[in-house]
Amino acid sequence: MRRVVTTPNTRIAVPQRTCIGCRQTRPQSELVRCAVNQHGAQVGRTAAGRGAWLCSMTCYHTAVQRKAFDRSWKRSLPADALLSLGDSLRAAMNDTNLNDTNLNDTDLNDTDMKESSVVGIAPDNTTPRKG
Ligand SMILES: [Zn+2]
């Protein structure tokens, strides 16, 4: 007796991508691609340029804070370019129905120091001077 082994569609190769925010590998379809080129940063699967992948707006903020974009793209973008990229990302993620529970808009300038390990500059400017 012969067993007929049918393995046509059992293994569908889903392209995996790593989110630059949380560093988790996910199916490409769950991530949003950003690319940088001479026009600046853009969102889109087909955008020309080097790609960086994000799974949520939270990860976008994380990536900005960790300068993960700079590392992925091997260049640093001006802050306003990153902000407009964030707007495009938000729109793209609403589009793809990713649930973003983080509704409060995190101000990038107002980093929460509770968890992130900031390289310490001690607030030690109160050296008393004599004379
Ligand atoms: Zn992520």
If you had to describe this structure to a student in words, what would you say it looks like?
It is a single chain. By secondary structure, the chain is of the alpha+beta class. It is built from 3 helices and 5 strands. A 3-stranded antiparallel β-sheet has the order 4-3-5. It binds zinc ion. Zinc ion binds at residues 19, 21-22, 24, 55-56, 59.
Element layout with pairings:
Blueprint: E1 16-18, E2 25-27, E3 32-37, E4 40-43, E5 50-54, H1 57-66, H2 68-73, H3 79-95
Antiparallel strand pairs: 1-2, 3-4, 3-5
Bound molecules: zinc ion.
Strand adjacency order, main sheet: 4-3-5
Rounded to an integer in angstroms, the radius of gyration calculated over CA atoms is: 21 Å
- Oligomer classification: single chain
Ligands: zinc ion
> N-to-C SSE series?
EEEEEHHH
- Termini separation (Å)? 102 Å
CATH topology of one domain: Hypothetical Cytosolic Protein, Chain: A
How many strands, what sense, and barrel or not for the largest sheet? 3 strands, antiparallel
How many DSSP E strands?
5
Mean pLDDT across the residues is 79
The CATH homologous superfamily of one domain corresponds to: YlxR-like
What's the shape? elongated
- Which structural class best describes the helix and strand composition? alpha+beta
- Please estimate the helix content: 25-40%
Strand share of the residues? 15-25%
Quickly count the helices: 3
